[in-house]
Write a structure and sequence with these properties.
This protein is an alpha+beta fold. The protein is built from nine helices and six strands; from the N terminus they run αααβαβββαβαβααα. The protein has helices spanning 49-53, 81-84, 89-100, 112-124, 155-161, 178-181, 198-213, 215-226, 233-239; strands at residues 105-111, 127-134, 137-146, 149-154, 169-174, 183-190.
């Protein structure tokens, strides 16, 4: 696999204006997937999910109807907004990104226009699957998107535990600077470091975003959500230059 690149970051300077990064961006029980999910709208996994995924007794009807309201840490509890409001987007993004390195968190940023496109497309297509390469093979990650959040868990864990599967990785988008700085800050939290390394989480963040932001790749997301019987996982593998094992 080629070396992972930083995709939607702006980098130039230090973390001098940031504070209070130590806590996760929201409180997340480590033993349950259901705390992030609500059931009332009866939205289930795409109808053909069982066809291509061979997921056995996966409880599609009770999963993935959307997140219950998360309680993310407000941005002003993570950074001093008043102190950074006069800083350049480059300085803010660099400090945000660099501070998170090696702390079990992932820091990134993106242009506001890209965030709005991601938000629009995610509202229409909430689910996707991403192969994560390891050694001589890959594991498949299942993504659920309800902006401003994304959560990921292993497909095999979901097959085994259904709605009780623990998220491996969560992402929160902060759009407080969208108008004034034309930027949105992104924070990823690795919930299960035994399942996902920081570098893998970073790759997962960036790669998932490309499937929602790139017009050609997004057609696969649409097919998975809307024309599932026509969805072929090998097309995702091919897009990512991974062999079809």
């Amino acid at each position: 696999m080629s070396k992972m690149r930083r995709a939607s970051r702006i980098i130039t300077s230090s973390a001098s204006h940031l504070r209070k990064f130590a806590s996760p961006s929201f409180a997340l029980p480590r033993n349950s997937f259901t705390t992030l999910i609500q059931i009332p709208q009866r939205q289930s996994l795409p109808g053909g999910f069982l066809k291509w995924g061979s997921v056995g007794s996966v409880r599609a009807s009770s999963f993935a109807s959307g997140f219950s309201p998360l309680k993310p840490k407000p941005l002003d509890s993570i950074i001093d907004i008043q102190r950074v409001k006069d800083c350049s987007p480059e300085d803010i993004a660099s400090a945000w990104d660099d501070y998170h390195l090696g702390r079990g968190h992932i820091g990134a940023s993106m242009k506001a226009s890209l965030y709005h496109l991601l938000e629009h497309r995610a509202a229409d297509c909430r689910f996707f699957v991403i192969p994560l390469w390891r050694g001589s093979g890959y594991v498949t990650m299942f993504a659920q998107v309800q902006m401003p959040h994304m959560i990921f868990t292993g497909l095999e864990d979901y097959k085994a535990r259904g709605t009780q599967a623990t998220p491996y990785f969560t992402m929160t988008y902060y759009n407080e600077f969208a108008e004034s700085k034309d930027m949105v800050l992104i924070r990823g939290d690795v919930v299960l470091p035994s399942k996902l390394s920081d570098s893998e989480a970073k790759w997962l963040l960036e790669t998932t975003q490309t499937f929602y932001l790139n017009d050609v790749r997004y057609k696969l997301v649409e097919r998975f959500n809307k024309q599932t019987h026509d969805f072929e996982f090998k097309d995702v593998l091919q897009t990512l230059d991974m062999p079809n094992l």
